[in-house]
Amino acid sequence: MTVEKEIVKKIEEYDTIIIHRHQHPDPDAYGSQGGLATAIMQSFPAKKVYQVGKNIPGLNWITVENEDLPDATYKNALVIVTDTANTPRVDDDRYNKGDFLIKIDHHPNDDQYGDLSLVNTNASSCSEIIHDLILASEGKLELTAEVAEKLYAGISSDTGRFMYDATTAHTMEVVASLMRTGIDTSKINRRLDSITLPVARLSAYVYENMKITKNNAAYIILNHDKIEEFDLGDAGTSAVVPLLGKINTTICWTVFVQQKDGTYRLRVRSKGPVINELAKEYQGGGHPLASGARIDDANEIPVYIEKLDGLAKKFAEEHDMTDW
To answer: Start and end of every DDH domain (predicted)?
Structure first.
């Protein structure tokens, strides 16, 4: 029996199913969680299906408002965690209070948690995996337009509108499958691509104040008072992360976002150099070209930037950069 069929069998077995996602969720976290939850609810109306996680303004259109569940709900429940590489990143640490735990993810499987796991690092997104799980169910889970909208939002976002290397021929086949349900992909893309006026002003600030190292690694440090000035929380800064990579000479880059406690959350991206090993040195990890990390003291930042610059230098020396 395949892992996909084992997961569907567990979904059939349990009357209560609780789905978690990762902290600081992005559209793929919302899309994979919401897409799976909706598919289960529509295919098994008698089951109680809950979605757990802090809500992020601007992304609630992808899935329903999430539940503030009492602890007792976890008794005898099936818990599924989507799009979350390691247990410290799971939003709501009660994920391990259920009767059975399933992990569904597309990040490197460094933290092999769960009683059952479906991890495909070749997938563009967790939403792509959920689509394949639905098809593997042989009709037990239905791919409706409502499900497809959520999964498409996750895939489109995690692939950077299909510009990132993780976009494969299979990704496009999945997109075709989703489109055949009749969803309006243009409308979803416009919504994903739109920004608020505060984010637009922050974008201008980022381009004006970003730094580029000698070897074309870029970075911007967003201190908490600056984020407050633009009337944005931590989640509001996610829209500016791709901006540094739009500059044609940038090889890899990092956005430092200071938290209320003075620590820094790092959003690390790359056009070529593998950056997840660097992220692991700083309490993080993720994909080879898209990772997250954390720095507790601002004094650590110069050393980090020097290492990021070193990755850019090595990559430039090993590759012809004329096409970048």
So the answer is: 17-155
